[in-house]
Amino acid sequence: MSAVRSRVSAKRFAAIDIGTNTILLLVAELGGNGTFQVLDDRAEITRLGERVDHAHKIGPGGEERSVQVLKSHLERCKDLGVDEIVVVGTSALRDARNAGDFKARLKRELGLDLRVLSGEEEAAYCYLAVQRGLALEAKEVLVVDVGGGSTELIWGKGSALHRSISLDLGSVRLTERFLISDPARDEECAALTRTVDCEMDPVRVSWRIEDHFHTMVGIAGTFTTLAAIEKGLRRYSHSEVHGSRLSRAEVERQIQLFKGKTIAERREIPGLEPERADVILAGAMLIDRIMALFHVDQVTVSDQGIRYGLLHEKLSAIHG
Question: Among 174-183, 234-243, 277-286, which is the least confidently predicted range?
């Protein structure tokens, strides 16, 4: 604990989300009555899940990049006097045969206890984050978390999570499977679309969805990136992105923009992180198909995902 702060002062809590494409860090000071103050909220693209879809193993490059970023995150936690750190992993770590080795390395070298979430747990944390982080009055909500390796679809009814499913569809996974050319060819994009529709349509049918959803909420980097591009943000702004609206027409416009450019050319687009330039087309196409299949014309964007769900879980444990 920092010498500047009293031992009786509020607790400082950190949540680290190790995703297929990005590692996110949230540091918050926990106050009374379930309140909190965000001290830091950052994301670094490490591509831990690079080629995990093909090899079913975490490669040395993705592992090393991720370990170095985690070391940096831990230094930041130390600087801020964090009292407790919770670390979770998602799709790539669910799929990789050597996830246990990675977990052991984090414990041995960094002292971190990594918990790999199931798809159901991931969905639950995302829904908790949405419920606490957005003022939603809709009775039927579809929450969509598009990650690098998987996508979670969450059907919420009021304050309750009604149904959820985790599908092996993500921006990195789909890019590696289908978008081999640079720029992507029409037939590659068509194959990606067919695969997404084949995976998604049974969900729509089994959920007996027609026009149930009053609101769709989109979580994670692909949604926030599309929102940032629409706004032309050269520097990311939480206040401008979180809670903003993204229309399907805008998603379609950006898909055509990405299709017409090489990866190198996409890196120059304001609002698009250069490290995300290769996978943004697949992510945008995935979002477009979800909106089409569930008859949604507009999505509310949230930049508060799993890490915020972990924070709210901690607050509930303290305050009930």
Answer: 234-243
**Cα separation values, 11 from 34, 76, 318, Å:** 12, 16, 11
Report d(CA 23, CA 164) in Å as an integer. 23
User: Within its chain, how far is the Cα of 294 from the centroid?
Assistant: 20
Measure the CA–CA gap between 276 and 244, rounded to whole angstroms: 21
Residues shown for the chain: 320
- Mean pLDDT within 201-211: 81
Cα–chain center distance at 27 = 17
Report how far apart, in Å, the C-alpha atoms of 87 and of each of 107, 175, 233, 311, 315 are.
11, 27, 30, 11, 16
Query: Alpha-carbon distance 21 to 196, whole Å?
Result: 19
Instruction: Respond yes or no on whether the N-terminal peptide bond of residue 270 is cis (omega within 30° of 0).
Output: no
Per-residue pLDDT for 65 more than 50? Answer: yes
What's this model's pTM, rounded to 2 decimal places? 0.90
Query: How far is it, in rounded angstroms, from Cα 168 to Cα 17?
Result: 18
Who's near 168: CB < 8 A, 6+ residues apart?
53, 91, 95, 149, 150, 199
Q: Please write the tens of the pLDDT for every residue from 78-109.
A: 999 999 999 999 999 999 999 999 999 999 99
With a CB cutoff of 8 Å and minimum separation 6, the contacts of 241 are: 224, 227, 228, 231, 233, 301, 303
Q: CA-CA distance, 261 to 184, in Å (whole number)? A: 9
| Residue % of the chain over a pLDDT of 70 | 95
**Assign residue 124 a region: left if phi > 0, alpha if psi is -120 to 50, beta otherwise?**
alpha
| pLDDT digits 0-9 by tens, 167-178 | 999 999 999 999
CB 11 within 8 A of CB 302: no
Measured from the Cβ of residue 311, the count of other Cβ atoms closer than 10 Å reads 26
